[in-house]
Amino acid sequence: MFDCQTKHEAAMMKHDLMRTPSVFFLCKGQSSLMSSGDTLPQNFAETLPTEMSVKIFEELDTVSLCSASQTCRLWRDIIQDSEQLWRTQCLLIRAVCQREVDGDRRDGLSWKVTLVKNYTRSCVKKDWLKGRYSHVTSAEQLIGRRMTALDAETWGDILQAELDR
User: Fold this and answer.
1) Which residues pair with 156 in a beta bridge?
2) 69-96 per-position pLDDT tens digit
3) Which of 4, 46, 86, 146 is disulfide-compatible with 112, CB 3.0–4.6 A?
């Protein structure tokens, strides 16, 4: 992956372009098939069809996807408008919060709203189920940790996992 930070590096890449008829560049998340004399595109989303950009964004985790949506207006629009992206992310948290996700979808919430509503819950529940908090002896040990309300069935799952350890 090229790190396009200096004019010298940009000049070297342009020089390499002139020796090679076409080459595939990856430059800090930018990709493009270029021919000699071409200038670097602003970003991959400007040159690729939207469907292809969505496929690329699908490779990101939830936090990275949210960060990417803050990169530029084009990325924000593609990410915000793609139910497919939010569905993919939501199905990942469904593995931990199936009841919650299925309930929200039955209630007619969009994939994005369902994900936002359940993301923190899924992280906390996953940590509890993995035993991350098994050795907590006081509330003070939880200060600064991310917590959220969990339903009685979830607490039952957590307690059962503790008993099984």
Assistant:
1) none
2) 999 999 999 999 999 999 999 999 999 9
3) 86
